[in-house]
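Sequence only, no structure available. Ideas?
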Amino acid sequence: MTTKTIDATTEHMARRELRRQPLKAVARQAPAFIQSGSSIGEAIAAMQSHAGDSLLVCVGERLLGVLTERDIVQRVLARGVEPDALVDVFMTREPDTLTPDSTLVEALELMERHGYRSVPLVSPDGRIEGVVRQTDILAFVAEAFPQEILNLPPRPEQVAETAEGG
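Reply:
I predicted one. Tokens follow.
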């Protein structure tokens, strides 16, 4: 089975193989995180420095919760919360997680079912191992099937009336 590593690209693989790819081949190994007890102001600064990624809220190396952009907009900004409020009050506690050995299909099903844009990866002993985002999966699939993805017309139902350049 072909597995992507940081230093190697994904070569063409069968669709069946793609469905069984473990998330450790796709996920970010260094997710954005903040320690429990941090302020909302610190959390927003951490999100900004990580291009808006969700923050994993931790106690040491253990996942306690997740704070997303949606949480900031709906639970913090919409309510006029002060920047020194604790992140623990606004995070989603005990979030759904997957393991690094879970498959792409499992991640996509969980994301679809709950509307998640990212899912933390946690080892069986409870340590944070990474995070998988929808964009990570999309990039992985595009790399695995470049001809199929890159050669699609912008609107697949569109049919050219004349040959290009003619």
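Strands lie at 33-35, 55-59, 62-67, 92-93, 118-122, 128-133.
Hope that gets you unstuck.
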